[in-house]
Every structure is written in structure tokens, then in C-alpha cells.
């Protein structure tokens, strides 16, 4: 499991964009968003760097926690 901090994620729309960005790298990824803590827990076989890059392209820079 991969956990990432996404500080610019503040609403349901943001959560949807973040989920789609992650699933563009791994369509089968399980994405659990916690808006309150601005974190995303991701169950995936994809590399963390590729996930972070997809989030950055989507406008939500993230860092692994």
C-alpha cells in the first residue's frame, strides 16, 4: 500500500480527479481518499513515482508519507 499527502485536495471534486489520475496509471488501483487529513491510501502495483507524476500532471502535487 502507498500513502500520499495531497495538500491541494480539499473537496469531493478534487478527490474524484485524484482518483482518476491514480487509475490512469493502474486501472485496478484501490484509492481511499481522506479529505480531512488530505491523504490518499492507494493499493496498487504501480511505482510510487508514476503515481506521483500522474497526480502532478492532474494539478495535485503529492508526496509519499
Q: What is the helix tally?
A: 2
The gyration radius over C-alpha positions equals 10 Å
* SS-based class: alpha+beta
Return the domain count. 1
Give an account of the 3D structure.
The protein has 65 residues and is α+β, with helices and mostly antiparallel strands. The protein has a single domain, classed as Alpha-Beta Plaits (2-Layer Sandwich). Helix content is 37%, strand content 25%. The protein has 2 helices and 4 strands; from the N terminus they run βαββαβ. The chain has helices at residues 12-25, 48-57; strands at residues 2-5, 30-34, 39-43, 63-64. It has a 4-stranded antiparallel β-sheet with strand order 2-3-1-4, with helices on one face. α1 crosses α2. The protein is globular, with a radius of gyration of 10 Å. The N and C termini lie close together (11 Å). The model has no long low-confidence stretch (mean pLDDT 97).
